Fold:
Amino acid sequence: MKKMVVFTLMVAVLFFSSMVQAEDFGMFVKVMDKFQGTFEEAVKGAEQALARNGWQILASYDASVPEGCSHKAHTIVISSPTYGGKIMSHGARSAFSLPLRVGIFTDENGISLSFVNPASLNRTVLGDNVEKDLSVGTMRDLSALLASAGKGRVVNQQAGEVRSKGHVGGMGGGAFTDKIEEVYKREDSGNALREITGKVREGITSNTNGWKLVYTLDLGSDVTVYGVNKAVTEAKAFRIAGEKRESKVNSCPGVDHVSAFPIEVVVYKEKGMVRVMLLDEMYRMKVYFEDAGKWAFMKNMGMPGAIEREITAMVTSKLK
Structure:
C-alpha cells in the first residue's frame, strides 16, 4: 500500500510538472536554426510559407543591428483577417497584440527562423485564459509552417523571457490595462476618426527624427494600427538584449529579439471618443526584453522614456 501511495504521488507530481511546463511560454519561439541556404533564401522561404497558409505580409525589411555586429536580422510583419477578427472581438485595446511578427537572424548556429509567440503575448494583453486555444494553436501553426520554409534543424524552442502567466511584474511591470498611454483624444463628430488617423500618419511620415512608418493595419472601421521603427533605437535595443550573452563566437546575440519591433501606435473610436494610444514604453520593453536582466534595465533607464516622448511628439505633431 505504501509503495502504491508513493507511486501515485510520483505520478501526480510528474503530471503537475508537465502541466506547469506546458504553461511556460517564451516571448519568442525559435523554430529552426542551421538553415541550409542563404539568408535571402531563408527570408523568401518564410514569406512564401506564410503566404501559402493565409497570412498577409504587411512589411518585410532588413532590421538594424548594433554597430560592429557581423550578423544579419530581418523582420516580416504578418496579419490574418480571421485571426485578427477573433482577437479584436475583445475590444479596441486588443490591437496591441496585432499584428504578429516573424524574425530571421544569424548567430553561432547559422541562420535561424523565429516569431513573436501569441501564446505569451495574448495572455498579457487579453488575460491568461482569453483565447487560449486560439493562441496556442496559432503558435503551433506558425511553428509548423515556418519549419516548412526550408531545410534546417527544427528546434521549436521557447526563447526570450519565459513566463508562466500573462502578468508582467517587477520594476516597470504591472497590469496591461494600466500601461496604455492616451496621448490624444477628441470627441467623435463628423469625420473626426478619418481626420485624426490621417494626421497621425502624416506626423509619422513627415518626422525628421529618424522614425519610419513600417506598416499600416486597418482592423475594421474603427481601429488602425501604425507600426513605427527607428534604426538606432532598434540596434541599441538588440545590443542591450544580448549584452550578458555575448561571447567570442556570438558578439551580438540580441538580434534574436528582432521580432520585438516595430512599435505599435493605435488609433481607435470608442464610446464617442477618438483616441490615440501607445503602450508605456518601459512596460513594452519589459514585455519583450525582460530577459536582458535587471542590470541592463537599470543602466538604460532613460531609454524607454526618450522613445515614448519622441513617438508622442511625432504622432501628435499634426493634431495641435
Remarks:
- Residues 115 and 142 are 8 Å apart (CA to CA).
- Residues 24-316 form a domain with the TATA-Binding Protein fold (CATH 3.30.310.70).
- Confidence is low (pLDDT under 50) at residues 1-21.
- Residues 2-22 form the longest helix (21 residues).
